[in-house]
Amino acid sequence: MPSMTMIEAIRSAMDIMLERDNRTVIYGEDVGYFGGVFRCTAGLQEKYGQERVFDTPINESAIVGMAIGMAAHGMRPCVEMQFADYMFPAFDQISQEAARIRHRSNGDFTCPIVIRMPTGGGIFGGQTHSQSPEALFTHVAGLKVVQPSNPYDAKGLLISAMEDTDPVIFLEPKRLYNGPFGGDHSGQAIGWKQHPKGKAPAGHYRVPLGKANISRPGNDVTVLAYGTMVHVAEAAVKACGIDAEIIDLRTLLPLDLETIVTSVKKTGRCVVLHEATRTSGFGAELIAEVQEACFYHLEAPIVRVTGWDAPYPHAQEWDYFPGPERVTKALQQTLEA
Amino acid sequence: MPSMTMIEAIRSAMDIMLERDNRTVIYGEDVGYFGGVFRCTAGLQEKYGQERVFDTPINESAIVGMAIGMAAHGMRPCVEMQFADYMFPAFDQISQEAARIRHRSNGDFTCPIVIRMPTGGGIFGGQTHSQSPEALFTHVAGLKVVQPSNPYDAKGLLISAMEDTDPVIFLEPKRLYNGPFGGDHSGQAIGWKQHPKGKAPAGHYRVPLGKANISRPGNDVTVLAYGTMVHVAEAAVKACGIDAEIIDLRTLLPLDLETIVTSVKKTGRCVVLHEATRTSGFGAELIAEVQEACFYHLEAPIVRVTGWDAPYPHAQEWDYFPGPERVTKALQQTLEA
Amino acid sequence: MTQTAKLSFPHPPSRPGVTPDFSYLKIPKAGTLAVPDVKMSVEDAAPYAHGLIRVLDGKGKAVGPWAKYLGDTGSAEILRRGLRDMLMMRAIDKRLQIAQRQGKTSFYIQCTGEEAIGCGFARMLSKGDMNFPTYRQQSLLVGSDYPLELMIGQVYSNSMDPLKGRQLPVLHSSREYGYFTVSGNLGTQYVQAVGWAMAAALMKDDGIAAGWIGDGATASNDFHGALLTASVYKPPVILNVVNNQWAISSCTGFAGGGKATYAERGLGYGIPSIRVDGNDYLAVLAASKWAIDRARGGDGPILIEWLTYRAAAHSSSDDPSVYRSKREAAAWPLGDPVERLKTHLILKDAWSQERHVQAEAEVLDEVRTVQKEVESHGTFVDPRPMPPADILRDVYAEMPEHLRRQRQQMGS
Amino acid sequence: MTQTAKLSFPHPPSRPGVTPDFSYLKIPKAGTLAVPDVKMSVEDAAPYAHGLIRVLDGKGKAVGPWAKYLGDTGSAEILRRGLRDMLMMRAIDKRLQIAQRQGKTSFYIQCTGEEAIGCGFARMLSKGDMNFPTYRQQSLLVGSDYPLELMIGQVYSNSMDPLKGRQLPVLHSSREYGYFTVSGNLGTQYVQAVGWAMAAALMKDDGIAAGWIGDGATASNDFHGALLTASVYKPPVILNVVNNQWAISSCTGFAGGGKATYAERGLGYGIPSIRVDGNDYLAVLAASKWAIDRARGGDGPILIEWLTYRAAAHSSSDDPSVYRSKREAAAWPLGDPVERLKTHLILKDAWSQERHVQAEAEVLDEVRTVQKEVESHGTFVDPRPMPPADILRDVYAEMPEHLRRQRQQMGS
Ligand SMILES: Cc1ncc(C[n+]2csc(CCOP(=O)(O)OP(=O)(O)O)c2C)c(N)n1
Ligand SMILES: Cc1ncc(C[n+]2csc(CCOP(=O)(O)OP(=O)(O)O)c2C)c(N)n1
Ligand SMILES: [Mg+2]
Ligand SMILES: [Mg+2]
To answer: Class of the D46-381 domain?
Structure first.
C-alpha cells in the first residue's frame, strides 16, 4: 500500500470519485487552478477539466446553495470551505436547506453533497483559522458529521461520504494534514510515512460512516476522541502508562454508541476530549449519552478536556490547546475518583 | 402591579429603555410602523419616532451587522429577528463578530446589543417558524443567552439585557406570548391575567442575568427547564403528584450552576427538558455539568425529554412537542430507577 | 462644515387613511419597447431594465412589437386557457382562504393580483425545467396542470398531502411538475436555482431553472449570491423578481426599490435584465417565451422584474388595513390581471361577460368538488391521526440507530 | 432547439509562463473627468462608475479638473509627506515580511502596490471618523500617524502588542486612530461600517465611517447587506472597494469583475459610485477629499472602486508564481504608486533622486530601530510566556463563574 499524507489521501478519494462517477463535481475557493490553499485538490482540475473542478466566488453560502441545486438535479457535488471558520455564512444553507430537502419533500428531492472543511488549531491561525464547529452540525437532524484522524480513514470515509445520498459534513483536522500530532508542538513533526495509518490502498475502498474505531484497546478508562485529539490521547496514554481504551469516533453523527457503551461498561470510567470550546461542545452530547446508557457501570464522573471558552488565541495557541498534560491529568483524576 | 402578557412585558421593557437611555434604538423587520408580527414593538415608533424605532430590509445578517457598528460607536441597539428560525443568516455576525469584538480588540471596542427572537413551536408554524436554536448560541463564548418563561421575568430580564455591556441573545417562547401553556393544546389557553407571574411593575426593575429561579420547590427529583417547558413541567408535576423541584434556568449562558447543583445534591435525581432537537441540544450541556458536579449524589441516570431529531413537523406538531405525558413518564422512570 | 447627515427612511405609497400615491413608479405606455435579439448583451439591456414591457394598452388592445412577437402564442385559444388558469387560481385562493378562516387548516397565502405571472410563465416552460418558487408562486402549479387534489391536499396536511403534513400549507413540492420544494426561509432557493441550472448545463439535459424571489426578499443574502454566481458561470437560469410593492408591512423601498429598479440591480452584476408588466398576461407570455428561449439557447442568465401588486393580505395571519390604505389596490396603476385579459378577449370578440361568469362558476365548482373530496380525508377541525413515527422518516435515507431509539420511545 | 447552454469560467490576466493581458481593463486618459457637485445623484454618476478618476498623466504631470480641485491639498509639502508615508509603509512591509521569514512571527500580509490608497485616504479623514478595514489596509494606519511600535508590536504578538497576542498579525485595532478591530472573516465589517455611520448620524457627532473590502470579498453576503442598508438609510458612509485584480489565486472575474465595474454594482443599488486610479496618489487625495466632504455634508453614501494591483503575494503563506506570471506586476497598466508620485514631484522640482534614496534609507532606519526595540520584548523564536489566564479575560466584561472555574483548571 502506498504511503499517503492526509492531504494525499483526501485528494486520492476525490480523484477516484471523479473518475468513477461523472456526476461528481469538486469546487470551492481557490480549489480549481491552484488546487486549494492546503493543496487537497492539486492537479484535479488539470486532470478532469474546468467543468468538473473549479474555482468559486468568495461566498460560502452560494457555494453550498449551488451544491444543493446541483445535487437535487442529480449531481454529486463535493465542495470545500477554505476553513471551517468560514462556513458560518453557509450555516443557513447547510442547516435549514441541505439537511431538510429530503424530509420536507417526502423524498421527492434529495441532497447528496459533501462539504469538506479544515478544522482545528495548530497553525497559529488565530481565532478565524482554528475553530472546531462540529457540535453545531451535530445539532442538525439530517446531516452526517465525519472527522477522520488519519490518512487511511480519511480516504475511506471521504469515499463513503461521496457515495452517501445524504449531506455529509467532512471535517479535516488541519494539524494532521502533513503528519500525526500528539500535542508536542515544540518537537519535530513526524510524517505520515512513519505511521501505520499513513498507508492506504491506491484504489477505491470504503470506511463505513457511523462506525467508530478502537484505536487503542485498554481496560481502565475509556477515552472518547476524534481528529487530532486521538493522537493527543495516544501520546498521553503512552507517556503515563495508563491502560486506557481510546475510541476514535470517526463519525460523530450518527454516533456509534454501541462501541462506546460496550467500552465504558467494561472500564467503568470515561474521559471525553475535544478542541472546541467546552460549553455545549460535542463532549456534552457524548457525556449525556454515556451517563444514561452506562450509569450503573460508572465509577467516576465523566470529565471533559476541551478548548477553553474563549476565542482561539493567536500567540497563546498552546495554552489554549488541550494538550497531553491536561489529558493525563484528567485520566489520573478519573482513575483516582 | 399591572397585569401584563409576555408581549406587553417585553414591550414595556423596551419602552422604558427608550425613555431612559437615548442610546437605545429598536429595529427589525416589520418592527417599526407595524409594531412587529407579534406586536412586541407596537406603538413604540409612534411614541419615539422613526430614528429610534424603525423597519429594516429582510436581511438578518445586516440587521446584526449594523447593530455591531452602532454598538461599537456607543449606541444600544435592541434588534428583532422575526423568528429564531431566521437568525441563521445572521449567525456569522453573531458568533464570529458580536461575540468577539471585546476580546479581540482587548476591550478597545465593545458590543452591547440585544438580539430578540421568538422561539419554539406551538403555533403550527412548521419547520421554519418553530425552532429552538439556543444550544447553538450557548456554544459561542462571548454571548449571553436568556430565555424567560413569564412576563415578570421577561421584562426584568430584558431590561438587564439591554443594560448589559455584552451581546445578549434573548429568546422569547412564542407559545407563551399570550398566556402560559402547560402542554394541553386541546384546551383553552389560560391568559397571563390568571397567573401570578402575569403581573409586573409598570416601571423599571431588573431580574439579574445568570440567576435561575426555583419555580417549584420539591425533594424527589430536580427538573431543569426554561421557557415553555417550565409550564409543561409544572403541569406534569401537578397532575402526577411527584414532589419535583422545578428550576427555571432563565439564563442559559452564563449558567447558574450553583442553584442546579444544590438542588440535584438534595434530590439525587434529575430530568432535563427542552423543545429543541435532542442531539447536542442544551440538555446535553446540562447533563454534562450535573453528572460531573453531582456524581456521588445521583441515584439514577439523568434523562432528557426533548423534541425528536427531525425537522419540526407542521401537522404532527403535538406528536413532536415534548408534552406532559412524556415528562411524566421520564419523572416516573427516574424515580423508579 | 456643520454636520447635516441625517438618516432617511423609505415611504410607502399609503398608510391607513392616506390617499395612495404611486407616483414613484413611472409607467410607460404599452407597445413602446422593441423586441431585442435573444442574445441581447448587458450593454443593450438598459432600456429594458428602466422601462417596462407591456402589450395590453389601456383599452385592452394588444399593441407593439411584443404583441407581434407572441404570434400563435397569443391566439384566442391560448389566451382563454390563460384566463381560465387565472380564474382557477383565484378560485383556489378564495376557497382555501375561507377554509383557513373556518379552522380547517392552519395557514394560507393568496396570490391575488399576481396570478398572470406564474400562470403565464409556466405555460412557456418545458418538461424537465425546474422552478424554485416562493410561497406565493402557486400559480406556476396551476399553469402546469398540477393535480388539484394534490394542491389542496398539501394545504390540508392530511393523507392526500404528498408531503405528509410535514410542511406549512402552500410550501408545495413536485419534481414532476417542476416545482422545487419550497423553503420557509426567504432567499435561500434563489442560489439553488443557479446550481440546478449549472447541473443542467453540465449534464447537457436541455433543461433550464427559474428562480423566484419577492421584492422584499431581494434584500436577503442569497439574492446576491445568486446574481453573482449566475453572472460568473452563465448557466441557463432565469432569475425572477416578483415586485409586488410590499413585504408584509414594509414597502418595497426597504429593499431599495424605488431608487433603482430591481432589473437595474441585475445590470450591476453584468446580467441582462428586463422589467415586465406582471399584470398583463400577454406581456407575461411574450417576455417568458423570449427569456426561456434565450436561457435554453445558451445565452446565459437573465433577470426579470415582474411589476405587480400584492392585492390581498400577506398571509392568513396578516391584516394589511393596519399598515396601508384599503384603497391602495384600486389605485394600483397596472390594474387587475384577470380584468385586463378578460377585456382584451372581449374586445377581440373571443369572450363575453356571460361566458366569463359561467367560467367563474365552473372553476369554482371544480375546486369545490375536489376540496370536498380532499376534506373527507380530514381537516384541522376533524383531524385524522397519522403515525407519530412518520416524523422520523426521511430525515435520512436510512433511519439511523438513534432515530430508531426515538421511534421506540414514541411507542410506535 | 438544441441545448447549447455551457458554463463559462473567468480567465485571469495571466498564468505562469503566459504573457499578461490586461486588455479587459479600459484605462482612460488622465484628466478627462470633471469634478461633479458633491450632491451628485446616482443618475449623474454613470460616467464616474464606468470611467476612472486620474490626475497624473503618463509623464507624471497633474492634469485636469481633479488636479485643480485639489488646490492646497496638492501642495509639494503635502505630497512629500504622502511619499514619505508610502515609503514608510513599504519599509514596514519589507521588514516584517523578512521577520516572518526568519520565524520571528507566524504570518504577515503586505500591501505592496496599494500604498497610495490608505495613505492618501487617511490623510483626508478627521478625528472621530472610523475605518472598517481589511487585513490589507495597514496603510491607513501609516496615514494616521499610528505609533510604529504599536503597529509592529501587534505583528510580534508580544507584550508590546495592544491586542495581547490575541489576533493574527496585521489584524490591528485602534479606536483612537479610527481603525476598527479587523476580522479574519471577509465581508462582515462592511455592513458594520454602515451601522457605525448610522450611529454617527443619529448621535449627530459629525463623524463618518469608511468600509473597506477587497474585490474578491465583494462576493460575500455582507457586501450586499452593506450596499442595501446604505442605500436605504443613507448614512454618512464611504464604501471602498479595493480592486487589486486578485483574491489569493482567483482573478477578479470570479467576483464578477471584468463584466461590469464594481462601481457599477453600486449604481444598481442607487448609490452614487466612482472609480479611481488607486495607484495615483493625487487622484486618491482628490477623490477622498470629495467623497469625505460629501459624506460628512449629509449627502448620503458613496461607493469608491479603487483600481490597483496586488503586487506582492497574497500573504506570507502564499506563492503567487504558482498561479500567475511573474511578469504581471510589471505589465499592470497603472504602474507603481511610489514611482508615479516620485516622478511627479521630481518633475515639479520638489524632489530629487538623491533625496528619494535618502528618504528611503531614513524610513528604513526608523522602522529598523523601532523593530529592534519591539523585538527585545520577544518574538516567535524567542517567546516570552504570557499568563494563560489572559485567554479568558475580555470574553465578557466581567468574568463569569464558568470561566473562573476554567481559570482555576489552568492553574493560574
Ligand atoms: C430569512 C427570512 N426572514 C424573514 C422571514 C419572514 N417573512 C416571511 S414573508 C416576508 C416578506 C417577504 O416579502 P417579499 O419577498 O416581497 O414577498 P411577498 O410576500 O411580497 O410575496 C417575511 C419578512 C422569512 N420567511 N425568512
Ligand atoms: C468568509 C471568508 N471566506 C474565505 C476567507 C479566506 N480568504 C482570506 S483572504 C481571501 C481572498 C480575498 O481577496 P480580496 O477580497 O480580493 O482581498 P485581497 O486579498 O486582494 O486584498 C480569502 C478567500 C476568509 N478570510 N473569509
Ligand atoms: Mg413583495
Ligand atoms: Mg483582491
So the answer is: alpha beta
